[in-house]
Amino acid sequence: MFAKFLSRVKAIPARSGDWANRLGPVALMGYSGGARSSDVKLLDNFYRSPRDCDMYAELTFHEPGPVECPPETVVFFPVVKCGNMLDGGVKHDAATRDDWYLATTEATTDLLEKGYIPISAGGDGSATLAMVEAYKRLFPTEEVVLIHFSARPSLETPEKPIRVLLEKDLLKGVIEVGNRCVSSYDRKVRKQHKVMYMDIQAIYAKGLFCIRDIRNDFPVFISIDADVLDPAFAPAVESPVPGGFTTRDLLHVMTSLRGPKVAGIDIHGYRPELDICRGDGLGLTQLALSKVLKESIVKAYVISTQTEEEGLERVRVMQRQGTISDNPYPDY
Q1: pLDDT of 35-45, one tens digit each?
Q2: How far apart are CA 311 and CA 39, in angstroms?
């Protein structure tokens, strides 16, 4: 049932030599395991929304094929469109949890082997397990730090993706950001596995800049559950918890993440049927997550172990190499 999607991924060529000393390109796939149509709704608005980002650069969308640097663009972040894992003609209920896991593992492995950064949009968060496991199978000697944005630690049951990764000892560490609904058992598991956490109350007590205390020298996997946002900004989640981040707070914290590179990104937790929509049918959660997805892609290109400026310097290398014009107004 995933044959069409997987054949599309296999058709993507390996990244060219132009990207040898750069981060990216990223490959974006729609994942709806556990949350029907969440990828369709999210990606539909994402591809139609403005392509400019907060760092005064633009995303460029590409069908599977060689990604070349357009000389007329000052700074660009290419996104290869892998499509939705489950086509509209296939019944969603026909795919089991194991089917989703195997297909996601295969697709992620293929993309990583070709030099792309895999990004999953939609679903219930189960893609995180498959994507991290695929990364560790390919690069067993590399340590990975998982940064998880969520209202809950998602550790309460043994089958939860992050709990499975911890039990299998596949992570160098886990950083929980934005938790505000933590049970006593969650605290026990966090202590047992030495999970670092920055609960929402601590973040606001110390100020948003406290996230800059995290210094990380390992590849980062970013997992963002929509419920980390306050229900005023993201009402379409299964179990909304008041008192969360504003959209701008989340974007600000994301810019402070550190690491030598991004191993992958999973943005999940969106339930389209629960969204509050404008007159034109555009949902509030859909709108917020499209922006979060855009800026997370930017993060995949500019992440740095030191400062945001150092990350941007990697982008400027393209200009120094002459691949991209230094003049933002080439007609003058």
Answers
A1: 888 999 999 99
A2: 29
